[in-house]
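Slide 14.
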Amino acid sequence: MALEEFLNKKVKVTQVRSACKLTKRQLGTLVGLGLRRIGSSREIQCDQSIRGMLIKLPHIVKVELS
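Slide 15: predicted structure.
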């Protein structure tokens, strides 16, 4: 599913991989999404800024409609 389909909808973002070897920028993006550890999830209203964050972390997070 393309991320354009999620715009203006509620999405559930779940961290599925470790943040151990992320750069500082990627780690800041992960914290900005409200994720702290593997398995943590959060429901977020998806807009352009959230979409940009998700594009930067496709290997760490799983995105699904809620």
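Speaker note: The first helix runs from residue 24 to 32.
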